[in-house]
Design goal:
alpha+beta, Immunoglobulin-like, 2 domains, five-stranded mixed sheet, five-stranded antiparallel sheet, 2 helices, 10 strands
């Protein structure tokens, strides 16, 4: 075998050995929902969350409700006092069903997606759940910062170009 053949064979062998790694890709940020629970129950009754289901609906009456699928990072996850959801995209309407430590499963009212990063307060009542959107600025502050930065850059460039033009005109008159 020639030097070229040995070099080519070793390059092919290295390519085969080192390229067999799994490749992971992400599509960027995903919409989320955060649910904070408060309990409106008789004195002394405090319960923790056992499990929960987030139903997605395309119709406003939720007659087509289907549980949010768990695919990759997408899913509905609950802890003792809160739940969160992440998805590749949410349907326009939702309903949650939560089982608490008192072994009663409560269902919520139908609510709408409140934005890209939605926040909700869930009031646990004796027989059901009341989901209310928390009004927040959401993505607005970051958009405002970007817009102000762009305006400042344009104004700054305008001032610099204006000063250069003034200096050139004055130096040309001399």
């Amino acid at each position: 075998m020639t030097k070229f053949g040995v070099s080519l064979l070793s390059l092919i062998l290295m390519q085969v050995l080192f390229s067999a790694h799994a490749v992971l890709a992400d599509t960027g940020p995903k919409p989320t929902m955060e649910f904070t629970f408060k309990q409106d129950l008789p004195e002394g009754e405090k319960h923790t969350i056992v499990s929960g289901i987030l139903y997605e609906c395309d119709r406003s009456d939720c007659s087509d409700a289907a549980p949010l699928e768990e695919v990759g990072p997408q899913g509905f996850y609950c802890e003792a006092q809160s739940c969160r959801a992440i998805a590749y995209g949410f349907a326009p309407y939702h309903r949650i069903e939560i089982e608490l430590s008192d072994e009663i499963t409560r269902q919520s009212n139908i609510f709408e997606t409140a934005g890209f990063d939605s926040r909700y307060t869930v009031t646990v009542q004796p027989d059901d759940l009341l989901v209310e959107s928390q009004l927040g600025l959401g993505i607005l502050p970051s958009i405002a910062i970007i817009a102000l930065t762009c305006i400042c850059i344009v104004l700054g460039l305008g001032l610099v170009i204006g000063l250069i033009m003034i200096i050139r005109r004055r130096s040309a008159k001399i």
